[in-house]
Amino acid sequence: MTIQVSITPNGRMSLPADIRKRLGVAVGGTLLVEETPDGVILRTVAQSIAHAQEIARKYTAGNPDMSVDAFIANRKADSGE
Hints:
Oligomer: single chain
Number of strands: 2
Radius of gyration: 19 Å
Helix content: 40-55%
Distance between the termini: 54 Å
Mean pLDDT: 86
Strand order of the largest sheet: 1-2
Low-confidence stretches: none
Order of helices and strands: HEEHH
């Protein structure tokens, strides 16, 4: 879906109510803006977390030793803590 929005002189834009409702973005809610070579992507915080987790899964291939907790435990073991 493509919707045209206008940007006000002070740089603000309005996200249509039906989109805000579908995304669960309330008044005063937060969206993250990602600039890509193809354009701008708006994501909710939950969508951004899911996106980051998807990227991480590509690099960890489901290996449990690749978790942050495992990394910290390995560092402690290596340093003798």
